[in-house]
Every structure is written in structure tokens, then in C-alpha cells.
């Protein structure tokens, strides 16, 4: 069955990185076009923010994801929850180190502040320190930020300096993100650091974007 003509033509989809910008847009349209702003408002969705994440340090490497999940619920009242469809926390993945496995967990915004204040969680026979975790995509194949190795379409190169050789014996640090920025803009950002150096301006910018797009339950 054909849809009857409405006399309304779709011109463009308008996106906004800031939810606060939408009401201003609606007010402007209403003032200039005299249309039903409430019907227009039904056409936008508030961007969904990510859940806060923590990194728990030094868990036994033999502990599985399931064991950690059940163990954290058993030892920490804050993490006990009967709602399996929307749990208060979830175990995401681990990062192995020589001191054990560091595990990443996501939590509901409503319990973020309490966990942050305590700075530790109990598991098995001990307690383990934790800190905020801000997941920034970094590619070890090309050394750039913003994507992972699995989705990289670049030619493999040294992630330390960006040249076409293996990184194993390379001692030269040159940030590919700052180099690309300088070439594109003519500016002179310092490049004598790795792309994932915590003091790199583009790494800091990426961290800040993660923070802005995270719901910490503080508002």
C-alpha cells in the first residue's frame, strides 16, 4: 500500500555532538518556521553514554572471567544483584602483566562514586586496588590512535618511530599522531614521544573524549 503524500520533504538529517545543542536548534526552527516544535522534537535521540570502567590490579593469572565475576559478587555487597538482565557490573577483559592480570570491569553509574572512594575490591582471600580505566583505541600496527590493530588498513610499520622496520631494536620515539598533525597544519608539536605517551596532547584529547562520553552518575 502506497504512503499518501504529506507535502513534507526530507532535506537532511542533522546531528549534534552535544545534547544541550538540540533545544537551541528546536527553538530556532520554531521561531523562524512557525512549525510544531514538539512533533519535531520526537525525531531526535539523546546520545547514550558509556558506563564507567575500572581496572583492578594484580589478580591471579589463573582466575577466569567467570570466577572473578562470581568472586566479586560474593565478597562485595555493593556488587550483589539479582537482576541478571541489567547487572550492576560486568567483567570485560584482562591485561596480563608480570605481576598478575589486570582486569577491566564496567559498573552502573549509580555505584561509581562509592567504588571510586573505596579504591579497592575484595576477591577470594585478599583485596585489590583499582583505578579509573579510560579505553582509548591504539593501533600497534601503525602507531595511530582511534582504531585497533584488527581494523587497521595501513601498511605495518614501527609503532615507535613510524618507519618501515620492526620495532624490536628501535630506540627512536616519534609520535605518528603529532607528526601527521604537523604535516597537515604546519604547526610544530613536539614529536619525541610514543603515540600512547600519557603526555601526548592527542592521547590526552582522546582520554578527555572518553570522560565526556561516560556517565559517572554525578549529575
Q: β content, as a range? A: 15-25%
The average pLDDT is 82
The overall strand count is 5
Could you name the ranges where pLDDT drops below 50 across 5 or more consecutive residues? none
Q: Alpha-carbon distance between the termini? A: 47 Å
Which secondary-structure class do the elements indicate?
Answer: alpha+beta
Counting DSSP H or I runs of 4 or more residues, the number of helices is: 6
Order of helices and strands: HHEHEEHEEHH
Please give the largest β-sheet: 5 strands, antiparallel
Strand order in space, largest sheet: 2-3-1-5-4
Give an overview in words:
The protein is an alpha+beta fold and 219 residues long. Among the domains are: 53-132; 149-213, no CATH class. The protein is 28% helix and 16% strand. The protein is built from six helices and five strands. A five-stranded antiparallel sheet has the order 2-3-1-5-4. The protein is globular. Residues 139-154 form the CCHC-type domain. InterPro entries: Znf_CCHC. GO terms for molecular function: nucleic acid binding; zinc ion binding.
